[in-house]
Amino acid sequence: MQSVSGRAQRPRVAILGGGAAGMATAFELSETGGYDITVYQMGWRLGGKCASGRRLEDHSGRDQEHGLHVLGGFYHNAMGMLRKVYAAWPAASQHPIAFQKAFLPQSRVHIMEEQPDARFPVLFPFPPNTRQLGLEPQDLTLGTIAMTIIGWISHVVQLQPEGQTPRGAPFASKTGAFAQSVQAALEQLSAEPLIAGAPASPGPLDQMIDIIHQAQFLPPPANAEHDPDYGILFEIAAVVVKGFILENMAVNGFEAANGVEFTTWMTKYGLSDYARQSSYFRCGYDYAFAYVDGDPAKPRVAAGAALRGFLRMVMTYNTSVFVHMCGGMGEIVFAPLYEVLKQRDVAFKFFHRVDQIVLDDTQSRVAEVLGTMQNDPIETEYNPLEVYRGRMVFPDRPIAGRLKHNPPIPSRPEFLYETPWNQPPNSGAFRLEADTDFDVCVLAIPIEALKTICADFPTPWPEMLSASATAPTIAAQLWQGLLTKDLGWPNGATVLTADREPLSTWADMSFLLPLEAPSASKHLSYFCGPFPQHVYPIPPANVGDLEIARGSAAVAAWMNQNLAELLPAAHPPNSFAPKPGGDELYVRVNFYPSERYTLTPPGSVAKRLAPGASGLDNLCLAGDWTKNGFDIGSYETAVASALLCAKAVGEASAQLLSEGGLAV
After folding, report:
1. What is the DSSP letter of 195?
2. Per-residue model confidence as pLDDT tens digits over 589-605
3. Contact 109, 288 (CB under 8 A)
4. pTM of the predicted model over 0.85
5. To 10 degrees, the CA torsion angle through 23, 29, 30, 31?
């Protein structure tokens, strides 16, 4: 679309969706002060699938999330934006939090390794560094990737005692040849830089892979915490570099591999069945929820997007590989954004659910936006925040005293206000008209919901929508009355993945307990993972309750079978209600269209639309489903898309950081 920044009066921008991408777009546009911005959001809170809410009515103050939200130290665009938000927050709020107190580095990561007769956690201690979050991002060039990976292998080999290797005696007879092949690969890559533009010979890498394949792997020691299976890691690393070389990715980029599924791509370049079936390989799929429709039997992710995401994570992080938020994501990310944007005169229209976008007769621009007005605020604008224990928070339900209508709240408030299917009592309709209510419309609603909202859009929209894929997810929060160490986990704070589905990822989040009301609880765990969808031809009115019942049964079955391997002394309650002694369980299933996780199946990136290439003159796009140079579901991707969207609208100044740290 054409920029509107040159208009004599401030252009009116209607942002549809107050999730990660919509709020980041609003912030970037507000930096110039040149736009009249209104954000339209269904329900009572901001954040979309990242929203959280504290239970204030029962005085527990317990935060309820959509899942385990952990930021990455490689989220350079997102953390850079949040630094600016936090710098502006004190002038906009009576209860700001310092940036340094809002985020907690997390360097320890575990993978659950599963052998035929044993399961045990394996530690990956990513070393912290002195680079600051959101500042001085590291370049990610393909030549650097290859050199660094082979350098890691060389370093590990050199650390082994004489006559030994990371996997023991059966591999020891190969030590000399393996070390020689590593050195040869380093020398070749130094002599024939990948940026030269011509594929190098993978001979030394083939030799490395062959030696690894010939090794007879010993079962790892069954202790509480031990070194990873370096044999598998060596193989995965060598196969990745071999693929880089043969596909000339230094010139063609990651996009060249996006038409192929990741496992297929790795197998093509020599990945063995042994490595492919390991937890070390599967953890990449778990991290990205990369299972179509949440089905673990359908792992699907584009090879280029998977490689880019994983390598950025492990090679370009600042401070620590992961970063916890010291509070709910709603209060750490979206409360400061909201208060800063309010100070900048951005308007917010809560309880506005978008149902349809109508194009004009030429099919070249948006004519009107139609939706449901779910409730009416008593004041001109609904205020979504409350003060709790000295910080601004979103409650877990609408604030009754600020609304004209207070219908009975179902078992979960989201069943009434965050669904496309239910109509709250006393709801009405709203209509936004182009050139009257907005000059530019920013579509920042998740892709699964757009399959209905944009059903009548012309080419290339049907192709993009049909190529897209999403996954339902499940989450559980477990409070216990014993300390983590007394529950039987001796290995310190961590994030663990590659466990059994559906709760394949776990983190000890006990550091959040002081933010709640005092209670007998001494431990807090978060779990999450993909959850196979159940198809409802016509969703019944009680579909939310049906999904929670289905999810609760799955969580109970998982915990009965697997929880003792993490927390042997834990006793999860069998219902939501708090139990004496501090035990409680909260289960959430994210199955509504706007809650499902964005996936990147092979072939889908080529069909995506860029934020400034909607094909409609007055419509820009923002979301992790757009074509944005990252192209995989994450908060970082949503912010990257928002930066590009703001540029498409007009005079946004922020630079998008990509592979080489370059502005796009």
Report:
1. G
2. 999 999 999 999 999 99
3. no
4. yes
5. 120
